[in-house]
Amino acid sequence: MKTNTLDFDAQALREKILDLAMRGKLVPQDPNDEPASVLLEKIKAEKEQLIKIKKIKKSKPLPEITDDEKPFEIPDSWEWVRLGEIGNYIQRGRSPKYDKENFIHPIISQKCIQWDEISLQDAKYITQDFFEKLEGYRFVRKGDILWNSTGTGTVGRVNIVREKFPNVPVDSHVTLVRTNNNVNSQFIYYYLYSPIIQSNLNDYLTGTTKQKELGLNSILKVVLPIPPLSEQSRIFYSTICKSERFAKV
Fold first, then answer.
1. Closest among 98, 102, 96 to 138, alpha carbons compared
2. Predicted structure pTM score
3. Domains of the chain
4. Burial (CB count <10 Å: 0-12, 13-18, 19+), residue 110
């Protein structure tokens, strides 16, 4: 746990930068950018094509976003959207069958997903039979967002896959969020990581005090702002990356 005052100040500044960046306050809008409304049409078209060729499954329609669900004003070129609308695959892993003798196939659990990294150091291992029955889309890919969905002290913790984990799945306590190719998954990750979501996490949790759960239905309905694609990248590279470097100083 951090105790140094400078550490706390750095973290507070980092959170403030994230908060402002996700509201469109730190990077100027470019009138030449293709508006997010066009981007959403592209996402819809790509998903329909993927469904047609059976690369992804058709999902149930999500409710319209009400004005009460919009937590702040966004630039005119941005759009509000639900997470489920921009995800090609959002699902929890399967309940695993563990192998206590052969340590060949690791599986990612809540302990593997920390705020600063995704590590297999504390991973358990699954049986060969369970591994062979897993569909290919269940193995994590670079750019996937992993969101802890159960567990006191771990629920809500989120990170993004930054390296290759060959043929490694997640277990049933972790939700895998794979965004559409027309979206910068880094931007989506930092929005889920930002105080806008994390400080209001209880709004998304269900269950009792001792058994809080971030259910799939709640995740699909998360409301988030989408800037034009080029602005998503500008926000990430010009503000968020700088805040990350500052926080590590």
1. 96
2. 0.91
3. 12-248 (3.90.220.20)
4. buried
